[in-house]
Design brief:
The structure holds two protein chains of two kinds. By secondary structure, chain A is mostly beta strands. Chain A is 8% helix and 46% strand. Chain A is globular, with a radius of gyration of 33 Å. By secondary structure, chain B is mainly alpha-helical. The chains are: A mainly beta, B mainly alpha.
């Protein structure tokens, strides 16, 4: 009974299962009616906020010991018929519960005091909910208030810094670009993508879901961090679960919300590049000619290519929602539009979404709910993969453009870069690429509550997705080496659908007053399928968009028309169950089990069982704690569980049968027959990665609940990571792709710490401070036989190495030890050139002394002979540190004072290394590219050409001489500390007092001003220390973390916005 | 007396019972069977779904054949063993130009030399493809109503032959190796060496099956001339039995050859089955001349090694090589021409210049001196300084060979191809010469029969078979040539050693033969042309070591003690 009420109390009861519980009160009410022989009194009144005196709609009012209840309307009013002598209980989320004994009064108005801690909040646990105070697993919860506090275009931005141990890293700064999410470290080389659940339905391990949902539609986000919580999702939950709940309609009169902001974005960091004078000095140094580049350096212009290349972008975001309903039906209709222009020309990202959520009580036993949404995004410009390398990525070539050259000639044509190369504005100006994504999702539930405590939910969730990409490659002529002859139209369309069906039965009861039990059992099945078709045609007669259709191509030759396609399908089903038991709400037990079946593994490994349990003890409920007044609430928790992760797509236990030319053979000695054979040795026993996690937790609320502390310690081990194994050739694997096996073993250990302080100062100042810290230590315990895994991005590879005993994906390269100098001792070698002798050497078979860097000159880098063999080779490469932070943190400040509110959020990381690939690229560009200004301070010898000093001597420096070997070797020269603190979000809001706004019929009028990424404290010299590296495809990311190749940089935004409520 | 509470419960249950039924119904309807997951991968052919038609089965078998004209295998099967033997030097522009080949020449090879990987890896890959086909073919009869069971069984026979052929080369190169007779699962990746005997037993059973399932060459028809046939299976059986018998005879009590027995009678029986099948004859055995790209009057022995001699009457099993201008990946040619043909010529300006060929596999003095003076077979395959041999290069131009970069002052010419069919064909890569590689030819079977007859004391038969070979050789000479003359008297092992040397030279037999006769110590201890003292250590050099990568990746596999570091 108490349990039921506590759930009713939740205002944001959007979860369908909850509605089942809510509905359960009705038959109970019915059956209790016979007992109510006493006089009934009709009581009415208003419920207001004790601090603001504003009415509180949706407050649950229950006559204790009965099932009679109601909720307040939009004006905070209620009426209820109760027997006299009963106690009325007023409960509302975020407020302390009040109880009043009914005597003879007919009007009872109550002022509820805000509960600054919210232990009674209900959190989603997956196919169910639980009071926060009763939780035994590790679940972080982010509410809608926190989500909408900052200007965001995607939910991914809302999560960063909000929960301890949850680290979200954008792959590029591109609007709408992909993100990497790490919950409690990196457990696999195959990626860390958590399972995303939207309104109870799995969206797969696809972080992109977060970027397409309208943040305003979200009621709450729960992060199921430990295995004892996540194991209910079994095989796909190994990297944690992010559970998103959208808002439900609210009964009462129609309410309209309008939120909007406009912002101005610009690139955060401006690189100091060499100016024309410094650049020409370099040209003179590089050139073998005896003639100076110029004798009149003052006539050269200085163009700042970053100003040419980047622009200020306008971002706008609009949300409009309508909600209302009565005691039978509620609805919410919400739509949103956002446009982010992008700081590079011809790039932008737009999102439109429409959502209709409603719930209907059909009968006393039956409730129906639906959630239908349509989401559309349009991305213009470069696709993610086009940022994945130095060369195709448009940013790095722009940085190295010649400082004395403008982008365009006087006739408007592109300039040809001095000394060759490509004018990056060509690629940008010519970019004409639209990527459209349509997605229609439905979620239909029936909730049946036939008996007290028993509820059934049936849910059907179909989805339809449609991609429509169109790129026009127009012909152009930007000089001899940079032109496209003839145009080409490329189109791709992809159609996908999926459905998911769930049956969940839940039974709750209390036995002998003290034994509370909830049992849940369910079944779920799903199928997804997609196919795509793409093609290209040449010779379009016009570049007019209305003529860019394949029918217009004037070239019908076969090699000018290409059609390709692909498809895939997957199916799965699962059974799952949970038991929650507590004794006097003091000793808590949760047991989960799920059995999962998936089509993509072989018959012997299609099924997996994923068990978990957790225990809790609220020690402050014990008698011996009753004197410890400074601790209001204390609980210790322990949990263990097993989950699965990273089931590969397709059918990884099989191998593709291919028919390459190499498998052909001429059995008649004249013409070759086609041969068909597998392209690898299949591993029929491939299965899910198995992730085991143990979690210890302590929750404390102290000092009259004003201070809260949660400390958790976890050990997470991936036992059976999927990796390619070098298998013996006797299997037939010679010159083939090696099969994947479940062999690797990776461990993450760490702490999640959350510290909160909330207070209301008597003069009306309310504030809260929240700090969360995630500490993780990563270690590779084992890999497949004899394997070292190398990772990298594009041509920065290999730069990471994963090996046993170290953290995953540590940077790996040469150690440097300063520069050779002109004061070093030397001898004259046989070729007449000096050889510096204070360096390691080896003795060759002839007995000669061979110095390690025998061609080294003063100004060259001294590499360290780490293995002491006197040779400089791959064996000297060592670990140069880990891209994984020692800890990450978020710090939130909320202040409210009268009409003002202030929000600030800091995020940061400590102890992670970044490979500054931009520095490598911009110190040693290929060809004649411009360099970073710091490179002007390199070690130089004086160069005189025709009597003019064209290069001035500079020996007092630690920047090496201009020579390939000093710059192309991956070394600690490029490894930098990636620690940072960033003010990610700052916002000041002003809410007009209701007596003013109310005159215009406006319930709430708030304007706000804010900034995103206002400042960053870091020693990192590249664009952004928040680098996730090369995970453009998702999977490669785990072994290419922290590699910065200077792609789409992150931006700073200033914005102003408005919230209106009618 | 029913309590009030109970009554209420009953009323409530009655009112809601239809919903309970709905719930139960829903759970029953929607509970899944595992068949729900039985879907076929879409948009790709897959090892789980591909093998359902006869055509698929045929293609699977083609893939097993195809590994033999892979650049990683064909040249190693011939040249590597030549170079290990005393009959060829590594060659090249200078000594050690190809260090690994020089290692084999000096018997100082390393366990990391890539050629060892090539032989091991490619042969096992062919075995994998054969096993895949053998496992999937029988089901095709069940699932493809159009399938012709006769064809399917024949295809199985071909795969059994190919599997035996691959093992026959594996055991000759490596001795005991892991015995893989099915597609391995992931729990079988660690696998120890098998003794030799079980591998010979597997080959014997495979060949018995193949003999049963395969048609004779003539019944197969020219459209299937390159497929394994009954004669090929019998010939390989004879050759395997020869090795078993030789090991048993010449290494009595040697643990490496435990279980081997002398089965000379069966050697002779299988060889005679081939001989008496009337399917095969020696090319030029009656003094015929043939039209080839070399010459319209090419003698039978030389004809055999031109592309014109592909699939001749003497062919029992050969790797089919063709040139179809398909570029690198296709490579359905042999790499031996490019590797071995003369590297230098006297160019049009009269100076030595490069030919585009690499000139490895140089015939040694030892080989040249083995020939009886006047034996026409010498000049049919070996160019010697002063003999005026020429070479054809691009454009069909022919120049005198220059020996300025040949340490032996010789070149192997057995595998030359014409420019018109090789270098002048567009898109033809260097590793794709057109002529077939003769893995089993009739002359070899005659010599095997002769050796077995000798061992059995059937001297008359032995002389008859060896003299058939010598007669053909003699008839390849100019009119009136009398060398080599027919042997008379009691045939000895020396006669066999000699005849196999001069008939089968530089075809990859010598090292295997010397090892099986336990004569390697006698012949392989020699000085190379550049003065390197080659030392044959027994048993270290009987077989190649297992590739180092294989030792690293297969914890159950042990290297030969002599090759352990």
């Amino acid at each position: 009974m108490r349990r039921t009420i506590s759930i009713i109390r939740k205002r944001n009861a959007t979860i369908c299962i909850l509605l089942g519980f809510l509905f359960a009160t009705i038959p109970m009410n019915y059956c209790m009616a016979e007992e109510s022989q006493q006089n009934e009194i009709l009581i009415h009144g208003t419920v207001t906020d004790a601090s603001t005196n504003e009415p509180l709609p949706g407050v649950a009012i229950v006559a204790k010991g009965t099932l009679v209840g109601t909720i307040t309307d939009i004006q905070g009013r209620y009426s209820i018929q109760v027997p006299s002598g009963k106690t009325l209980q007023f409960s509302y989320i975020g407020y302390l519960t009040e109880e009043i004994v009914v005597t003879t009064e007919t009007e009872i108005s109550i002022r509820l005091v805000p509960d600054i801690i919210g232990l009674d909040e209900v959190v989603v646990t997956g196919y169910g909910v639980q009071k926060k105070s009763d939780l035994t697993g590790s679940i972080a919860s982010v509410s809608s208030e926190n989500i909408t506090k900052m200007p965001i275009t995607g939910l991914d931005q809302a999560l960063q810094g909000m929960a301890a141990g949850v680290n979200i890293i954008p792959v590029t700064g591109r609007p709408g670009g992909t993100v990497n999410i790490q919950i409690r470290g990196v457990s696999s080389i195959n990626g860390t993508a958590p399972l995303i659940i939207l309104d109870g339905v799995s969206q797969g391990n696809d972080a992109n879901v977060l970027t397409r949902i309208n943040p305003e539609d979200v009621e709450s986000i729960e992060v199921l961090k430990d295995a004892s919580s996540a194991a209910i999702y079994g095989a796909t939950a190994g990297n944690g679960v992010i559970y998103i709940t959208t808002k439900s309609g609210k009964s009462g009169t129609l309410r309209v919300n309008y939120n909007s902001y406009m912002g101005q974005e610009s690139v955060i960091k401006h690189f100091d590049m060499m100016n024309s004078e410094q650049y020409i000095e370099l040209v003179d140094e590089m050139s073998a000619s005896n003639i100076p580049f110029t004798t009149n350096i003052d006539t050269f212009e200085n163009y700042d290519w970053q100003d040419i290349f980047f622009k200020t972008a306008i971002t706008q975001n609009h949300d409009l929602s309508v909600t209302g309903g009565n005691d039978k039906s509620t609805y919410l209709i919400s739509s949103a539009y956002s446009k982010d222009e992008g700081i590079i020309k011809n790039t932008s990202h737009q999102r439109f979404s429409l959502r209709i959520n409603s719930g209907h009580k059909i009968s006393k036993f039956l409730t129906f709910e639906e959630r239908v949404s349509y989401m559309y995004t349009l991305t213009n410009g470069f696709a993610d993969w086009e940022y994945s390398g130095y060369y195709q990525n448009p940013v790095a070539p722009a940085l190295q453009m010649i400082p004395f050259q403008p982008a365009y000639n006087e006739d408007g044509n592109w300039t040809e870069p001095y000394g060759g190369g490509v004018n990056p504005m060509v690629a940008i100006d010519m970019k004409d690429n639209d990527m459209k994504r349509h997605r229609l999702e439905g979620n239909f539930s029936i909730i049946v509550t036939p008996l007290k405590g028993l509820s059934y939910t049936g849910r059907f969730s179909p989805s339809l997705s449609f991609d429509d990409d169109k790129e026009f490659l127009d012909e152009y002529d930007a000089g001899a080496t940079n032109k496209r002859l003839g145009n080409e139209l490329v189109q791709r369309m992809s159609l996908g659908n999926s459905w998911n069906l769930q049956n969940i039965v839940t039974y709750t009861n209390t036995f002998h007053n003290d034994h509370n039990i909830t049992v849940m059992a369910g079944h779920e099945a799903g199928r997804w399928w997609w196919h795509d078709i793409s093609g290209r045609r040449s010779d379009m007669p016009s570049d007019q968009p209305y003529l860019l259709y394949f029918s217009m191509s004037t070239n019908d030759t076969l090699d000018k028309q290409v059609v390709e396609g692909d498809g895939d399908e997957g199916r799965n089903y699962r059974y799952f169950g949970r038991l929650n038991y507590d004794y006097k709400s003091k000793y808590l037990l949760t047991v989960n089990v799920s059995r999962d079946y998936a089509s993509n593994f072989g018959p012997m490994n299609r099924a997996g069982t994923f068990p978990s349990f957790s225990l809790g003890w609220k020690f402050t409920e014990e008698a011996f704690m009753s004197n410890m007044n400074f601790i209001n609430f204390g609980k210790i928790r322990f949990g263990w569980g097993q989950t699965g992760a990273n089931a590969k797509g397709g059918f990884p236990y099989l191998s593709t049968v291919v028919t390459p030319d190499g498998y052909m053979y001429a059995v008649n000695g004249i013409v070759a027959n086609i041969g068909a054979a597998p392209d690898k040795i299949p591993n029929p026993s491939l299965k899910w990665e198995s992730i085991n996690m143990t979690n210890y937790g302590l929750d404390l609320y102290m000092l009259n609940n004003k201070l809260s502390l949660t400390v958790e310690y976890f050990i997470k081990v991936n036992d059976g990571m999927i990796m390619a194994q070098q298998i013996p050739w006797h299997t037939g694997s010679y010159n083939m792709t090696m099969p994947e096996v479940n062999i690797g073993n990776i461990q993450n250990k760490g702490f999640d710490i959350t510290l909160g302080h909330k207070n209301t100062v008597s003069n009306g100042l309310k504030y809260s401070l929240d700090l969360n810290v995630g500490i993780v230590r990563n270690k590779v315990l084992s890999l497949a036989t004899d394997s070292l895994l190398y990772g990298g991005v594009h041509n920065v590879t290999p730069i990471t190495m994963t090996s046993e005993g170290n953290a995953i994906s540590e940077f790996y390269g040469y150690q440097t030890n300063g520069l050779f100098s002109e004061s070093d001792p030397f001898i004259i070698g046989s070729n007449g050139k000096p050889i510096i002798t204070n360096q390691p050497y080896s003795i060759n078979s002839n007995g000669d002394t061979i110095y390690m860097q025998r061609n080294a000159q003063p100004g060259d880098v001294r590499y360290v002979d780490t293995n002491g063999d006197g040779l400089l080779n791959n064996d000297d490469k060592v670990s140069l540190g880990s891209p994984l932070p020692k800890f990450t943190f978020g710090f939130n400040i909320n202040l409210e004072y009268k009409m003002f509110d202030l929000y600030a959020m800091f995020t940061g990381s400590y102890g992670n290394k970044v490979f500054n690939g931009t520095k490598q690229y911009l110190y040693y560009s290929q060809g004649n590219g411009n360099r970073l200004a710091a490179f002007a301070d390199r070690y130089k010898d004086e160069v005189i050409k025709e009597g003019i000093v064209v290069v001035e001597e500079n020996h007092d420096t630690d920047i090496p001489r201009f020579a390939a070997d000093n710059y192309i070797r991956p070394s600690n020269f490029y490894i930098e500390d990636g620690s940072y603190i960033r003010l990610r979000s700052l916002q000041l809001g002003i809410t007009l007092p209701k007596n003013i706004s109310g005159r215009a019929g406006i319930e709430k009028f708030r304007i706000y001003f804010g900034a995103r990424n206002l400042f960053t404290l870091t020693r990192y010299t590249g664009y952004d220390p928040v680098v996730s590296g090369g995970g453009y495809g998702g999977d490669a990311g785990a072994m290419a973390q922290g590699i910065d190749i200077g792609v789409y940089p992150s931006t700073r935004m200033y914005l102003a916005g408005i919230n209106l409520e009618f | 007396m029913i309590s009030l509470k109970m009554k209420k419960l009953i009323i409530m249950t009655m009112k809601s019972s239809k919903y309970i039924i709905y719930i139960l119904l829903a759970v029953i309807i929607f509970s899944c069977k595992e068949e729900f997951l039985d879907i076929r991968p879409i948009a790709e052919q897959n090892s789980g779904t591909f093998y359902i038609t006869q055509e698929a089965g045929e293609q699977a078998v083609i893939a097993a054949y195809s590994q033999y004209n892979n650049v990683s295998l064909d040249k190693e099967l011939i040249m590597l063993t030549d170079v290990i033997s005393d009959h060829a030097e590594a060659g090249g522009e200078y000594v050690n130009e190809v260090p690994s080949y020089e290692n084999f020449n000096r018997l100082t090879w390393l366990t990391t030399d890539g050629e060892i990987d090539n032989v091991w890896g490619s042969l096992y890959k062919s075995i994998y493809f054969a096993n895949t086909a053998i496992e999937n073919l029988p089901d095709i009869i069940e699932v493809d109503p159009e399938a012709d069971a006769g064809v399917i069984y024949r295809l199985i026979g071909e795969c059994k032959f190919l599997r035996a052929l691959s093992y026959s080369y594996l055991v000759k190169h490596f001795g005991g190796v892991p015995l893989v007779d099915h597609v391995l699962g992931s729990d079988e990746y660690a696998m120890a060496r098998s003794e030799l005997k079980p591998i010979y037993d597997l080959m014997e059973q495979d060949l018995l099956d193949a003999i049963e399932l395969l048609p004779e060459r003539s019944a197969f028809g020219s459209e299937n001339i390159g497929r394994a046939n009954k004669g090929a299976a019998k010939a390989l059986m004879a050759r395997n039995l020869l090795f078993e018998s030789s090991y048993a005879k010449y290494y009595p009590g040697d643990a490496m050859f435990a279980g081997m027995t002398q089965r000379w009678g069966e050697v002779l029986q299988y060889a005679e089955m081939v001989i008496n099948s009337n399917e095969y004859s020696l090319a030029g055995e009656n003094g015929e001349r043939y039209v080839t790209w070399r010459n319209p009057v090419t003698n039978g022995y030389r004809y055999l090694f031109t592309s014109n001699g592909d699939n001749s009457s003497e062919s029992i099993y050969e790797i089919q090589n063709i040139i179809d201008g398909k570029g690198w990946a296709a490579a359905r040619g042999n790499a031996i021409c490019q590797y071995s043909a003369a590297r230098r010529m006297i160019g049009s300006n009269g100076n030595p210049t490069d030919t585009e060929y690499w000139g490895l596999d140089l015939p040694t003095d030892g080989l040249v001196n083995e020939f009886e003076p006047g034996d026409p077979r010498l000049r049919a395959g070996i160019a010697i300084e002063g003999n005026g041999d020429s070479i054809e290069v691009r454009g069909g131009l022919r120049y005198l060979i220059s020996y300025d970069q040949s340490v032996t002052r010789t070149y192997c010419t057995k595998y030359e191809a014409s420019a018109a069919e090789f270098k002048d064909v567009p898109n033809t890569p260097w590793h794709a010469a057109p002529q077939n590689i003769k893995l089993i030819r009739y002359a070899d079977i005659l010599l095997i029969a002769a050796e077995a007859a000798m061992e059995l004391g059937q001297n008359g038969k032995a002389l008859q078979y060896i003299n058939e070979v010598r007669t053909r050789a003699r008839l390849c000479g100019d009119e009136g040539n009398t060398v080599p003359a027919d042997l008379t008297g009691t045939m000895t092992l020396e006669d066999i050693v000699h005849e196999r040397a001069v008939e089968l030279y530089l075809e990859g037999h010598r090292w295997y033969d010397l090892v099986r006769w336990n004569l390697a110590t006698q012949y392989l201890n020699h000085f190379t042309e550049d003065g390197f003292q080659v030392i044959y250590e027994d048993p270290k050099h009987r077989f190649l070591p297992i590739p180092q990568d294989e030792i690293n990746n297969n914890p159950a596999l042990e290297q030969y003690p002599d090759w352990q570091f």
